[in-house]
Amino acid sequence: MAKIGVFVCHCGTNIAKTVDVSRVVQASGRLPSVAHAAEYRYMCSEPGQQMIREAIAEKGLDRIVVAACSPHLHERTFRNCASAAGLNPYLVEMSNIREQCSWCHHDREVATERAYEQVAMTVAKAYHDTPLSQNSLPVERRALVIGGGIAGIQAALDIGDAGYPVTLVERTPSIGGRMAQFDKTFPTLDCSACILTPKMVECASHPNIRMLTYSEVEELSGFIGNFEAKIRMKARSVDLKECKGCGDCWEKCPRKNIPSEFDAELGKRTAIYVPFPQAVPNVPVIDRANCIYFETGKCGVCKKRCPVGCIDYDQQDEIITERFGAVVVATGFDVMDTSVYGEYGGGRFANIMSGLQFERLMNASGPTGGHLVRPSDGQEPRTVVFVQCVGSRDEDKGHEYCSKVCCMYTAKHATLLKDKMPNVDAYVFYIDIRATGKNYEEFIRRAQRHYGVQYVRGRVSRIYPEGDRLVVCGADTLMGEQVQVEADLVVLASAAEPRSNAKEVARMLGIGQDKDGFFAEAHPKLRPVENLTAGIYLAGACQFIKDIPDTVAGASAAASKVAALFAKDHLLSEAQIAAVDPEICRGCLQCVEVCPFSAIEESTYKDPFRRIERTVAKVNPNVCMGCGTCAAGCFAGAAELAGFRDEQVFDEIATAVATEAVMELSWAVAPETESEA
Amino acid sequence: MTTYAYFPGCSLNGTSKEYGASTLSLSRALGIELEELDDWSCCGATSAHCAGKEVSEALAARNVALAADTGRDLVVPCAACYNRTRRAAQAMEDRKTRERLSQIMGRTLGDPVHVLHLLELFARPEVTEKLQAMVTRPLSGTKVAAYYGCLLLRPKDTGIDDPENPTIMDGLLRQCGVEPVEWYFKAECCGASLAIPQASAVEHLVSRIITNARSWGAEMIVTACPLCQVNLETRQSTEPGTQPMPVLYFTQVLGLAVGIVPHDLCVPSRVADALTREAVTAGGE
Q1: Do B164 and A348 touch (CB under 8 A)?
Q2: Which pLDDT value is given to residue A660?
Q3: Are B257 and B161 in a shared domain?
């Protein structure tokens, strides 16, 4: 006969205000198998925990039910408490009478009854609890960082500095990412490249960092501490070790008219190219899709010009497979294509551009050498209009969310413009100004007061060409008037959004996405850099749009999580995991399909009675996260989740639907049990 | 011969007789029969939906039901009629709304028929191809501005094209040898019924549209809405020395291109002469 102890928490007044805790304790004390019932103001406090420990020792309790808040908050607390008293931690159950009862009821009578019913259900489940234990796993102390922007660079440097080897994989020919494209950074206006390049160089020369540029992760398998990644190192067509980056090859390349991705399509590049002058590594790649040699078999100018003979047209993609203990995902963001905005020209007018394009036009390494001109005719503008929230805060055509950085980068653009060309008129159309970082509000004020940028509160309704200029029509909602501005250049603060391939990457890595497509963190407040898949961490804008300070802070946080993981000798696996009983399994493999963590695989089972081999499903205990989807999906009842076995769940349900009867029964039949106040 | 149910609405028998006449002439030439709904009623126009949702839906749904009785898709040339009728057909998709409308009307409503604007019908590839083959007088000497107004395009779910940059009429005209200009006031407001309470507002809006069309080289405006046509034609300022901008229905222009006599299209002879003369000159070069 089990001896269950029930401990009901007041949570100050959080529970006690709507639930008559004493009555719940009295009634619970009469439930079958309950040997002890008690209450306390704060069960999670040290005296509360001591009360539980003492009761275990004195009354010989072998199951504990704590009726308090969500197990998300304190399950671990009470398991540790039981453990300290010598009880297996998996013999502790929590009944959430706060979020699921006291917080959602107003009527004290109803809430008290409901709380008691919940306790009765949990007691029924606890009755069937069995001791569980965790397995010990080894840890591969090497990290994989995916994405070589500022987030990936920072994470790699921090993990490397902690003494662990890191492999940094970057899809494009150079690390640097978005930050390398920016001209200046807000709110300090330091040159983006000047503060980024030292970190890029440090990354390249760090003894613990192995940098794989022009490479992509194609497959990831395994689990925390024991991942295996397949990485494709794309053929660069240039010998990475021998090349000195002299530039003879790209200066002489005859194909010069390819739109430059790095210059947001505003500039041109050659077929053999480095994306930007400060690229790391400073080694070009041949864009085979646009190379004359690869198109016609003739040309070979770069090969002839190369003084060290490092051009290799026959180079092949190389695929390597390596083991890692942790993965940091830092794949960044895309700028939204705003051509859905027909009212803003829908991409038809050359002089309407995105903020990123403006950034490149202002940049000394950009297509015009930092000279701001209209793309249509190369003339200097006299009036520039900035339109905020294009694609952000717009459920109809764009995204519901605020892109967070646009208010600041628009103020930066306008400031830089007025600084460089004081006679140009700058207008900013905005809905609200969101400048919540350190020195951000001051930065906006400076743009308005010192630089004389005209801020107009209102939406732009449409933009159309008149002659060689653009007419921007909008509302000034502070003046209550319609306004029209004739502009030479219009800069749209285009929304930032998840990478176009975020879905495929999420599937490849086995990580979740939120409703907007960003990679989902494990908890929005308390686990912001972790993913629900253990061992995978998020850094930078792939989780949600961040400015540079937040990106760097998040990347360091992810790195510290990795370092903490690697500091352990071994890992403990989940104890509440699923298992498939091969005797019952009929091999339909439905569970393999529904498992969100790819933890179940096909296996064969030698049936000792029928002496045949048949297909069954088998759970990898190290990968299983204990979600229970397989148990719910198993037609045969072969898959079962430890701690949530069928008899536990069914008894819980039976108690829920028959509580009145149980209640009567408990009042009538259960032996008198002393309850503490 | 393909037959469609046809709802002319009040305008096509009144202020825009020329739209009605040219629609029928052009359809006949194309071998499309437009069979006028028997006993059709008011679509509700702008007044009904200001008075109430149900009355506006019921008025237009009656015509959709009449079309359903014939079993034919319903073609509507007037932009306002189209907007209301299409909206009613969409409302009838909802079972509850349909039951309520049946109750109001005292008859059981079936599935709504497909409601299409005349432009949508002519822009169907097979119809456009046929039209193209019939062109005998390509009016390529005249630059026209295709003007859409609001009701053909908004709201988005009843609109027949991109509300910000519509191209359906431009494409149709171009394929039939007419030269539409690229301009940016295609969907600008004409002032609509403000013509009655506040004519000056309409005059201001119309003059902006006409000026903009002129600045992009247009010599004529082509429209598909009776109210737009009336406003643009009659409310434009007639400053001494400026020629008024002709405003025609797209059916009239296409009718001229396929050689229908101006009289059957209600095209003023002055305009027809000018257009065909230029076309002949252009053709003779």
Answers
A1: no
A2: 61
A3: yes
Count Cα atoms within 13 angstroms, Cβ side, for B20: 14
Percent of chain A with pLDDT over 70: 97
Using CB atoms, which residue from B162, B185, B212 is nearest to A342? Answer: B162
One domain, residues A421 and A363: yes
- pLDDT of B241 higher than 80: no
**Residue located via tokens 């002709």:** B246
Report H helices in A471-547.
502-509
Report the C-alpha gap between B62 and B65 in whole angstroms: 5
CA distance B184 to chain A (A): 6
Residue span of the structural domain in which A324 resides: 137-234+317-332+505-573
> How many separate domains does chain B show?
2
Whether A342 and chain B come into contact, CB under 8 Å, resolves to yes
Q: In the structure encoding, which two tokens stand for residue A546, read together?
A: 């961040």
Q: Residues 536-565, chain A: which have Cβ within 8 Å of B?
A: none
Q: Hey, is the C-beta of A635 within 8 angstroms of any chain B C-beta?
A: no
CA angle A384, A390, A392 (to 5 degrees): 145
Report the alpha-carbon distance of residue B11 to residue B228 in Å, rounded. 12
Question: Do A122 and A59 fall within a single domain?
Answer: yes
Pick from A197, A201, A219: nearest CA to A209:
A201
Contacts (Cβ under 8 Å, ≥6 apart) of A457: A429, A430, A431, A476, A477, A478
Shared domain for B194 and B276, answered yes or no, is yes
Residue pLDDT, tens place only, A234-271? 999 999 999 999 999 999 999 999 999 999 999 999 99
Query: Which among A429, A412, A271 is positioned nearest to A344, based on CA atoms?
Result: A429
Q: Is residue B128 part of a domain?
A: no
pTM: 0.82
Of B165, B185, B212, the CB nearest to A342: B165
Structure tokens at A306: 């190369």
Best residue in A351, A460, A466, A473 to probe B by mutation, most B CBs within 10 Å?
A466
Q: Which residues contact B261 (CB under 8 A, 6 or more apart)?
A: none
Cβ contacts below 8 Å, chain A against chain B, sum to 16
Q: Which residues contact A360 (CB under 8 A, 6 or more apart)?
A: A181, A183, A262, A263, A264, A266, A267, A366, A367
Domain that holds residue B213: 136-284
Domains contained in chain A, number: 5
Residue that the structure tokens 């046929």 belong to: B130
pLDDT at B138: 83
**Tokens 């053709």 appear where?**
B283
Chain B's closest residue to A342, CA to CA, is: B164
A207's tokens: 């003894």
Residue pLDDT, tens place only, A310-344: 999 999 999 999 999 999 999 999 999 999 999 99
Mean pLDDT of the region A140-166: 98
pLDDT single digits (tens) A74-104: 999 999 999 999 999 999 999 999 999 999 9
CB contact under 8 A, A462 and B215: no
- Mean pLDDT, chain B, integer: 91
Candidates B184, B185, B188, B215: best to mutate against A (most CBs of A within 10 A) is B184
The residue among A511, A632, A512, A621 whose CA lies nearest residue A576 is A621
User: What distances in angstroms separate CA A550 from CA A24, A154, A579, A621, B89, one per listed residue?
Assistant: 47, 12, 41, 36, 52
SS3 readout for B7-41: CCCCHHHCCCHHHHHHHHHHHHHHCEEEEECCCCC
Chain A: residue whose CA lies nearest to B214: A466
How far off is chain A from B205, nearest CA to CA, in Å? 14
CATH number for the domain spanning B229: value is 3.40.50.11810
Rounded to whole angstroms, the Cα distance separating B232 from B245 reads: 9
ipTM of this complex prediction, to 2 decimal places: 0.85
Tell whether A462 is within 8 A of chain B (Cβ).
yes
